[in-house]
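User: For my dataset I need records formatted as: sequence, then C-alpha cells, nothing else. Please produce one.
Assistant:
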Amino acid sequence: MNPYNPAVRENDLLQHIYAANPGLATAFPGVTIPPGDDMGAIEFGGRTLLVAADQVINRVHFDLTRTPLEKIGRKAITRNLSDVAAMAARPAAAVAAVALPRGFGHDRAAALFDAMRLTGESFGCPLIGGDTAIHDGPLSISVTVLAEPWDGVEPVRRRGEDMQQLPRVGDAIYVTGELGNSFATGHHLDFTPRLELAKFLAENPATRPTAMMDLSDGLAQDLPRLVAHAELQARVLPVREGTPEPRWHHAIGDGEDYELLFTAAADAPIPDAFGEDDDAVLITRVGTVTDAGGIVVITPENQRVRLEDSGAGGWEHTS
C-alpha cells in the first residue's frame, strides 16, 4: 500500500466527521440533528427539515452491462428513501445530480430520468431539480432527499445529544424483512423502503424504537454503529431464500439489504409482521443490548464469537 495514499475506510472517516459535531451545534443552533444519523435536520421557517444524500455508481452499486436502466433509476431514489424510513419521517422531494458516461445517448438518459421521476412520485417524493454532466468516467447518480416529520411523530434517532448511545441495556434488537444474498437475488434493485412500517412503529409510544437506522451495510457494519455491546442470535436471523451456507454468515455480512435495524424495550409489543398476507414484512428479534463485551454472535452451534472475528465484514466502501 502506498503510505501517501492509504485506503479510505468508511467508519474511520465517519468518526472524523462526527468529531466536529459539538462545534457545529454551537455555531449553528438551527441544526437539530448533526451528522451521525441517517438524515441531518435543521429548523427552517418554524418547521423541521430533514436532509440526506446518497449515490449509486456503476461497478459499485450496480452493473450497467446487465442491469436495466429502470432498475438503476429506481435504486437511486429508493436507496435514499430507506434513509427517510430509518428516521420514521415522510419524504417531501428530491433533487439529483447525474454524471453520464460519454456516449450514453439521449434515449438512455431520458429512460433513466423517467425511472427516477416515476419512482419518486410513487412514494410521494417528486424529483424537483438537479444537474447533469457528461464525463469519461462511470455512470454516477447522486440524490439528495428532503423529508419532514409525520404529524405528531418525532424522528427516531441513532444517537442522542453528544452522540451518546440511545439503546438501553436490555433493549431488544430487531430487523425487518430478510437478509443476505441481496446482489445475487436482485433484492438490492427491487427492495421497498419501509416508510409505512417505520411510521407504524414510531407513532405508537408502546412500540416506538429507542433507536433505529437503515440496514444497508450489513449487520457486521451497521450494528456497531447503533450499539457498543450486544448479543446477536445467528440461528434466528431471517435469511433470504437461496442464500448459500453458512447462511447466517451471509445474513450478517453481505449488506445491501435496505431494511430497518432498530432497538426497543424488551417488553414492547412489537408484532411479528407488518402488512397483509403476501405483502406482510417480517419483524424479527435478533438480539439484545448488553453492557459489556462488545458485540458477540451466538452461532447456530451455540458458540460465542466476537463479531469482528466472525469473518463477516459487511459492505465496506474502500479506495
